[in-house]
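Response to reviewer comment R2.3. The reviewers asked that we include at least one raw input/output pair. We reproduce the pair for Thioredoxin domain-containing protein here without editing.
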Amino acid sequence: MLSLLVSFQLVADLTQTLPKHMSKNKPLFVSYVTRWSLESRPLQDQFDILERQLGHSKIRIAKVLCDVNPEICMEHDVPYFPHIVLYQPGQLPKIYKGQMTAELMQEWLKTNLK
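Raw output as returned:
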C-alpha cells in the first residue's frame, strides 16, 4: 500500500493528479494550506510526522499549497486555511476540526475511516 505525500515543493504537480488520487479506492487525507497563513506552517511538519507514523497504510496523504494552485482549492470549496479534509470513496468529505498535531489527527482518522 503506497502512501502519497506531496511536499510544498512538488505541489504544483498535484493540479493534474489530485482528481486521479481521489478516484482510487483508498481514502485521501488532504491539507489545504497557504504560505501566508501562520497556522499552515506548523501543519506541514505535523503532516510529515503523520505520514511517517502511518507508513504504507490504507490511506494516502497530500498537501495542497493553495496560493500556488488556487484552482484546486476553488474546485474543492476550501473556505479557510488550513483546511483538512478526509475523502473516502462513496462518502461525503469529512472535515477535520481538531488540534493540528499528528497524534490527534491519527486518532481522528482511526475513528473516521470506514
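The chain has a mean pLDDT of 81. The first strand starts at residue 28 and ends at 33. Further pairs are available on request from the corresponding author.
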